[in-house]
Amino acid sequence: MNSDNDLQIAGDILEVPHLLQPPREHPATVAEFAGLARAVAADRAQWAHLVQYDATTRWYHRLRTGPGYEVWLLSWVPGQGSGLHDHGRSSGVLTVLEGTLTERTERGTRALAAGAQRVFAPGYVHEVVNDSLEPAVSLHVYYPGLTEMPMHTSPHCEARTAPGTGARPVSA
């Protein structure tokens, strides 16, 4: 019985090879880069043993490179932050692996718990800070690979909150 909600495909789509796209060896779209970040995040064996914490400076490790992109692993002890910056001509995907990070932009402040993901375009200005009382780990995919990280000063970004006080949500 057919209804307005039925979707029917004539024949087997697998029998029409020209309609199937071959799987890519490396990501090429924003969705594929976000998927790469989610896949790496889900595979703790790839990254958990590499994480180190440094109270004097943010720790980072290049986890992987591919044609035109890089994957970085970063750790954040309480109080550490990136400073207000952009990523030059690179777009990126930020994925929180462990803990909670706070992202500040001129639009507001957002708490990013483990599993949260942010996608950004070239020129996106933000600050990432560990405002919690526990360490955090994040994964960053940059495409093209990161070649600069210009620092900014802006009265438009909100002032820092004390560690452990949390972040206010971004108003839509």
How would you describe the overall organization of this protein?
The chain is mainly beta and 172 residues long. The chain is built from one helix and eight strands, in the order αββββββββ. It has one helix spanning 30-42, and strands at 59-66, 69-76, 91-98, 100-105, 108-113, 117-120, 127-129, 136-143. A five-stranded antiparallel β-sheet has the order 1-2-8-3-6, covered by helices on one side. The protein is globular.
From the N-terminal CA to the C-terminal CA, the straight-line distance is: 44 Å
Low-pLDDT runs: 156-172
Radius of gyration: 20 Å
Question: What is the succession of H and E elements?
Answer: HEEEEEEEE
Q: Characterize the biggest β-sheet.
A: 5 strands, antiparallel
Task: Kindly summarize this structure in a few lines.
The chain is mainly β and 172 residues long. 8% of the residues lie in helices and 30% in strands. The radius of gyration is 20 Å and the shape is globular.
Task: Give short descriptive properties of this protein.
172 residues; mainly beta; five-stranded antiparallel β-sheet; 1 helix; 8 strands; disordered C terminus
